[in-house]
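Can't paste images in this forum, so I'm doing it all in text. The chain is below; anyone willing to post the predicted structure tokens underneath?
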Amino acid sequence: TALGCLNLEAAERSTHEFVFLTWDKQGIPNALPRNVSFHSLAVHGLERVFLKIFGITRSSKMLRRLLERLGIEFIFYPVPSLLTYELPFALVHWDLQHRNNPYFSEVSAGKEWARREELFTHSLERAAFIVTGTSQGKTEIERYYAVPGDRIRVAPLPTPRFALSQTVRNDAVLERLSLPDRFLFYPAQFWAHKNHVNLLYALHYLKNERGLECHMVFAGGDKGNLPHVRATAEKLGVSSQLHIAGFVSQAELVALYQKASALTFMTLCGPDNLPPLEAFALGCPVIASNVPGAEEQLGDAALLVNPTDEKEIGEAIFRVLREPALRAELVQKGRDRAERYSGSRFMEAVFQPLDDFARVRRTWMSNYSKLRN
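Text version of the structure:
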């Protein structure tokens, strides 16, 4: 994830040195720019299970010694996580759905709401700067955590590199799934907020009001809501149109995008979601939920609909399936948008605040642990 986010070509154009702290070294290119290196955390006993069980406090001493030995002066987190507070840091922030949609059990059950709140309170309020994909995301950070706007940078999240690099269609990898020739596609874990159920209502609407029987492929792991999805399909009489692919490989995911009649991305949360960008890159027209910020991320390259209105969802599907000119227009606009959202462009947007902060960071010694004594 971090490697795809950084983009080695962009790193080479920077004056900074980058050290990737990784859990393993699989997939690391043989040829690296002069200012990029990798260091495995596993060799220092900082395994994931240790961090999970003992948390930041118990592991921070080992991590602090390692960072000091490596001469690390600043940490950039490409995902919303935090290993230590001992160094100045920046992070990429995805969303605040536990605040926007606290009624979903996946963001509130047990201690989950409190865990997220504790993480975001500390990380967002203490970050040197924050990168988020949309102005909507920036507004929410300011609203919920009172972070000054000049510490929040908006940079559209990059299209995953695997999607941009695929050019040849290979339907053979889908043989194990035994899918129909034409289908709609939705890759999402079976959480309630992923809104699979309202897509089933849209299938029911199309079948009964438009005389159009569409097949739907859901790919993703069950997080507890799959039995409800199956029961709803049975109740609505669309079970024969539903295909549960489960977890799929990256090769299968690519082929599903390339073969699908459309991506029907009906999540109730957002706006910084990656599947629409993947679909854009792979030539799959996108119908997406019109959650706050979605229009900023997707523009006119997707049909945006009310994700709880089965008629509106159904009519958008009907148009994409029955209007070849509209489909071709969405595919072309999607490809153009995916290519603009490159990893290189994303990181170049990050370099400016990094350069600015470097002039602040040079005011104290690298051996930061001694400053506290």
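The first strand starts at residue 18 and ends at 22. The two ends are 37 Å apart (CA to CA).
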